[in-house]
């Protein structure tokens, strides 16, 4: 194991390491602590420039209830779920199929189609912005949860296809051959043979896509307006007033908004990491 | 009909499975790319009629100071964002021990990647605040003059990149932690017997085995650098006087922002950004192609 | 894709005429008045209208303030409401040019608005037609720390020399004369407006923002020279490009700065941060050129009828209602701003009173603010130039040339 396992080093190094760890963590998470600190300040504090000092008043309860009472943050969070969950289901479903097709079957266009999905995943959003907005408008889906979800489903299919295809490719082909010999139809092979084995990949991908979509800011601002449809990332900005930015409320709101993906991450760490690191290990 | 299907399933099935995915992808990704290229040949305010202007948008770009500033900043982003990779490696090495609670430490170190970039930008803005920010409090306590990082056209971009490195390093850290887990212990033992230590061990034994992780880190970091939008929007709004603009943000400013009613010009900027990305995409695809052919 | 928009507009216009009979009685209003005070004001406004017009039922769509600026581009073409709020001046231009606003000259003529709303008629007119009804505006000027002035024996400056002298005294006392935050650019636009209005007057300023005067003109240079005097005298706080207007309040709250060229909305947060009305005061931006009549900035909020609206008849009634003196008094009481109608009365607050007096005695003209008087693109280029100039005044020539180049391209 590299670096040298700490048990094998001198006692002094061990102690030094054990002290260094929490200090390093504190420094690393300092910005987050700042957000948390700001979320319990009063507005007057912020106007007076007291960003890092001891708060003049502790408004934990006021701020966190204010965001639910005075702002539609509850709606925004609900909208985030309304966009994220269909996207996860849609993108994963589509990519199970496309991944299966590209991994199992040999045909001439296979690699090209695969590369199309991969390339599309890396495309900068700006090149899509105007046409997608227009398309969503003319479909009558502008400023609807489904308008946003449909775009995400389509776009995430790129990354998800890459993921699933590589995963299925790593599966033993003999299973499929055996099923074919038995005369099982292709559709049933997909449904009864391959899909059950994909459960870990589906879990990993779901968690990843959930986090990506939940944290998406760009498309939320382009395709949705107003508290009936906007997810929390875009909605956070609206916690600010017309003239005066209510940073204490925005901080409180962003902590609340960060909770679902963070919870997801802690609960499903294994899957999360395996998803992100696909291909990082031979 | 069903016998035709039964006989030809293996040939037809892939298309059946691919159809919905390809359809969605074509409608929302592939076709829009061509549409954007088309729009870039028009002058359109997004409200009324669009006027065909041919290459005029591109010609204008060549004379556009802001465009070249954006291009320059994109290059700076590309180069400096790479720092996330060695930084991620360093943190991963630091955490690659089995003391008690290390799993919690690893999770917490990964945290920055999970929160919204808007929040990251906000906090770093306060960090850099010329009067009240921690950076300047520290500088003043050791006798230096405060630097208004985000107000200085020479420093602002670097300040924003530093903010972006925080979540990006967390991502690279996880990639390397996973990679380190898979490093062959026998090779390490063998190298130890040969008295390899520290940096030499890292360079000659470990890093080669981390190649896949490094490759993914590279790709993701490059894409992240070229995509950077949120941080610039929230930290400087492209300022001071447009000196932190990048192509992604400039396009948004021209086409969608409060003062931007130039869809055609914005599309032209997007096309240029896309062309730059295509270089990397093509490189990535080429490597994938070689891997595929190899295996 | 683009031609679709035009056919869509035509189709909607045709169907509007057929279906207007069906839609009488339902009024759809879109606004961005999402802050507590404006929201309450509109609630009362709509309730009052419905009470007087029981045959009309109002559906009110409230948008977030920032999001509205993008939403409006979309809902004016597809799914237009009957009434929408927006801003006066060249801010209306893109929509007027695209034929998305309905001219309302008839509402003005039928209700005597050319008299009662006279001060705002200019800012509501484009190409000889009037495009909406204004319902509120607020003053701009210099907000200052009365206590710091008094402690240093400084009287309210009425002219340029007094202003410069006041700054000197403040600097000697270790106080930065003026605070400003230019990160989001518009604050620098406000300073330019006042300096230009005082140096060259309202007519010149309007012509400049209309693109009729070169940015390299000597008179523009004169304005910039005056600005440079302030910069060289160290009037502005350091590093203002790193601050939003709000973050720049902090020095004023802490007593490190004494003045702020700002709009009246700055008063509320200053009060919230702990400043009392004894510490806070307001004065009109000082005279620079005594031959130039004093003009003021008073950004105006307005209501419009989209040309794709379904119920234009009731929309016109709503606009007429909003223009009334008593209605404007009521709205502005809640908003804490100033009514346009010359027959309305103003709240008790000392800042409102000062603003009202100043604006109703203004014979020099009322400007809408740089980013509403100049078309969007020119406004952006201009404000960026101003910000750069404030930090690097030696770059004046390059900046003015760049603005002139932009003018050539934008005003075609």
How would you describe this structure to a colleague?
The complex is a heterotrimer of chains A (282), B (295) and C (412). By secondary structure, chain A is mainly α. Helix content of chain A is 72%, strand content 0%. Chain A has helices at 11-28, 30-38, 43-47, 60-70, 73-104, 110-122, 126-138, 145-169, 174-181, 186-197, 199-214, 218-223, 232-238, 247-267, 269-276. The longest helix of chain A is centred in the first third of the chain and has 32 residues, at 73-104. Chain B is 72% helix and 1% strand. In chain B, strands 1-2 form a two-stranded antiparallel sheet. In chain B, helix 11 (211-227) runs antiparallel to helix 14. The longest helix of chain B has 38 residues, at 2-39. Chain C is an alpha/beta fold. Chain C is globular, with a radius of gyration of 22 Å. The chains are: A mainly alpha (282), B mainly alpha (295), C alpha/beta (412). At the A-B interface, helix 1, helix 2, helix 5, helix 6 and helix 7 of A face helix 1, helix 5, helix 6, helix 8 and helix 10 of B.
What can be said about this structure in brief?
Chain B has 295 residues and is an all-alpha fold.
Task: Give structural attributes.
heterotrimer, B: 295 residues, MetI-like fold, two-stranded antiparallel sheet, C: 412 residues, alpha/beta, 5-stranded mixed sheet, 4-stranded mixed sheet, globular
How do the helices and strands line up, and which of them pair or pack?
The complex is a heterotrimer of chains A (282), B (295) and C (412).
Chain A: H1 11-28, H2 30-38, H3 43-47, H4 60-70, H5 73-104, H6 110-122, H7 126-138, H8 145-169, H9 174-181, H10 186-197, H11 199-214, H12 218-223, H13 232-238, H14 247-267, H15 269-276
Helix pairs in contact in A: 4-14, 5-8, 5-11, 5-13, 6-8, 8-11, 9-10, 11-15, 13-14
Chain B: H1 2-39, E1 42-43, E2 51-52, H2 56-62, H3 65-81, H4 84-95, H5 102-110, H6 117-127, H7 134-141, H8 156-181, H9 185-193, H10 198-209, H11 211-227, H12 230-235, H13 247-255, H14 263-294
Antiparallel strand pairs in B: 1-2
Helix pairs in contact in B: 1-14, 3-8, 3-11, 4-8, 6-8, 8-11, 11-14, 13-14
Chain C: H1 2-23, E1 26-31, H2 36-52, E2 57-62, H3 65-75, E3 83-87, H4 93-97, H5 105-110, H6 113-116, H7 118-124, E4 125-126, E5 129-130, E6 133-137, E7 140-145, H8 146-151, H9 160-172, E8 176-179, H10 186-200, H11 202-209, H12 218-232, H13 249-254, E9 257-263, H14 267-272, E10 280-283, E11 296-297, E12 300-304, H15 312-323, H16 325-335, H17 350-360, E13 366-367, H18 370-373, H19 376-391, H20 396-410
Parallel strand pairs in C: 1-2, 1-3, 8-9, 11-13
Antiparallel strand pairs in C: 3-12, 4-5, 6-12, 7-9, 7-10
Helix pairs in contact in C: 2-16, 10-11, 10-12, 10-19, 19-20
């Amino acid at each position: 194991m590299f670096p040298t396992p700490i048990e094998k080093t001198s006692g002094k190094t061990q102690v030094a390491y054990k002290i260094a760890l929490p200090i390093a963590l504190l420094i690393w998470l300092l910005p987050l602590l700042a957000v948390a600190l700001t979320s319990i300040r009063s507005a007057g504090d912020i106007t007076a420039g007291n960003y890092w000092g001891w708060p003049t008043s502790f408004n934990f309860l006021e701020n966190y209830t204010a965001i639910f009472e005075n702002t539609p943050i509850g709606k925004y969070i609900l909208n985030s779920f309304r966009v994220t969950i269909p996207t996860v289901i849609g993108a994963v479903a589509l990519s199970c199929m496309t991944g299966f097709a590209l991994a199992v079957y040999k045909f001439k266009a296979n690699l090209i189609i695969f590369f199309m999905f991969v390339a599309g995943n890396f495309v900068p959003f700006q090149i899509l912005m105007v046409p997608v907005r227009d398309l969503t408008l003319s479909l009558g889906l502008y400023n609807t949860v489904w308008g946003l979800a449909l775009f995400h489903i389509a776009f995430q299919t790129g990354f998800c296809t890459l993921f699933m295809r590589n995963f299925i490719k790593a599966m033993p082909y003999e299973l499929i051959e055996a099923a074919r010999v038995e005369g099982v139809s292709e559709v049933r092979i997909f449904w009864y043979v391959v899909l059950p084995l994909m459960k870990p990949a589906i879990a990993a991908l779901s968690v990843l896509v959930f986090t990506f979509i939940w944290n998406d800011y760009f498309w939320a601002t382009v395709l949705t307006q107003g508290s009936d449809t906007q997810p929390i990332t875009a909605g956070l900005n609206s916690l600010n007033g017309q003239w005066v930015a209510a940073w204490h409320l925005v901080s409180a709101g962003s902590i609340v908004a960060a909770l679902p993906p963070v919870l997801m991450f802690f609960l499903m760490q294994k899957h999360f990491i395996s998803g992100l690191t696909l291909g990082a290990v031979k | 009909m069903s016998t035709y299907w039964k006989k030809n399933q293996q040939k037809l099935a892939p298309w059946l499975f691919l159809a919905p995915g390809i359809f969605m992808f074509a409608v929302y990704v592939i076709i829009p790319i061509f549409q954007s290229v088309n729009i870039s040949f028009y002058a359109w305010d997004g409200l009324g009629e669009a006027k065909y202007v041919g290459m005029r948008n591109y010609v204008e770009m060549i004379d556009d100071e802001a465009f070249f500033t954006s291009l320059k900043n994109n290059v700076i982003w590309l180069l400096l964002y790479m720092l996330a990779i060695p930084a991620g490696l360093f943190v991963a090495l630091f955490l690659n021990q089995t003391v008690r609670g290390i799993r919690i430490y690893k999770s917490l170190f990964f945290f920055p990647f999970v929160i919204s970039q808007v929040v990251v930008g906000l906090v770093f803005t306060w960090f850099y605040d010329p009067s009240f920010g921690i950076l300047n409090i520290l500088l003043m306590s050791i006798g230096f003059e405060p630097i208004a990082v985000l107000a200085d056209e020479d420093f602002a971009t670097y300040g924003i990149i530093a903010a972006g490195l925080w979540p990006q390093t967390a991502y690279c850290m996880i990639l390397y932690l996973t990679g380190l887990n898979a490093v062959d212990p026998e090779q390490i033992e063998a190298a130890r017997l040969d008295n390899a230590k520290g940096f030499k061990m890292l360079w000659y034994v470990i890093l080669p085995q981390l190649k896949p992780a490094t490759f993914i880190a590279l790709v993701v970091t490059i894409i992240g650098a070229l995509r950077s939008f949120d941080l610039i929007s929230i930290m400087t709004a492209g300022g001071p006087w447009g000196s932190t603009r990048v192509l992604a943000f400039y396009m948004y400013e021209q086409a969608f922002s409060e003062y931007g009613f130039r869809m055609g010009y914005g599309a032209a900027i997007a096309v240029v950004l896309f062309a730059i990305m295509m270089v990397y995409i093509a490189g990535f695809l080429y490597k994938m192609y070689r891997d595929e052919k190899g295996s | 894709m683009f031609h679709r928009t035009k056919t869509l507009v035509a189709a909607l216009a045709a169907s509007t005429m057929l279906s207007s009979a069906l839609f009488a009685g339902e009024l759809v209003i879109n606004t961005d008045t999402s802050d507590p005070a404006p929201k309450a004001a509109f609630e009362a406004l709509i309730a009052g209208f419905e009470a007087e017009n029981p045959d009309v039922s109002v559906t009110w769509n409230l948008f977030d303030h920032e999001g509205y600026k993008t939403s409006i581009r979309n809902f004016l073409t597809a799914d237009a409401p009957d009434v929408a709020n927006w801003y006066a001046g060249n801010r209306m231009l893109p929509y007027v040019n695209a034929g998305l606003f309905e001219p309302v000259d008839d509402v003005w003529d039928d209700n005597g608005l050319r008299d009662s709303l006279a001060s705002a008629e200019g800012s509501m007119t484009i190409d000889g037609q009037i495009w909406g009804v204004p319902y509120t505006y607020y003053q701009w000027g210099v907000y200052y720390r009365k206590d710091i002035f008094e402690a240093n024996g400084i009287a309210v400056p009425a002219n340029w020399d007094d202003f410069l002298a006041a700054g000197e005294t403040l600097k000697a006392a270790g106080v930065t004369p003026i605070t400003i935050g230019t990160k989001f650019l518009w604050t620098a636009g406000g300073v330019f407006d006042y300096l230009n209005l005082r140096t060259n007057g309202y007519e010149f300023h309007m012509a400049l923002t209309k693109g009729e005067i070169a940015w390299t003109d000597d008179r523009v240079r004169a304005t910039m020279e005056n600005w440079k005097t302030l910069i060289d005298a160290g009037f502005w706080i350091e590093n203002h490009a790193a601050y939003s207007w709000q973050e720049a309040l902090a020095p004023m709250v802490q007593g490190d700065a004494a003045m702020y060229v700002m709009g009246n909305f700055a008063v509320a947060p200053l009060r919230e941060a702990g400043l009392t009305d004894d510490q806070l005061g307001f004065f009109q931006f000082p005279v620079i050129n005594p031959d130039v009549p004093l003009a003021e900035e008073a950004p105006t909020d307005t209501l419009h009828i989209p040309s794709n609206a379904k119920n234009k008849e009731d929309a016109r009634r709503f606009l007429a209602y909003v223009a009334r003196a008593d209605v404007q008094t009521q709205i502005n009481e809640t908003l804490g701003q100033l009514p346009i109608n010359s027959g309305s009365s103003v709240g008790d607050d000392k800042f409102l009173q000062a603003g009202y007096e100043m604006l109703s005695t203004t014979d020099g003209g009322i400007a809408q603010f740089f980013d509403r008087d100049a078309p969007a693109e020119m406004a952006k280029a201009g404000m960026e130039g101003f910000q750069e100039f404030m930090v690097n005044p030696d770059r004046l020539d390059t900046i003015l040339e760049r603005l002139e180049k932009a003018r050539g391209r934008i005003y075609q």
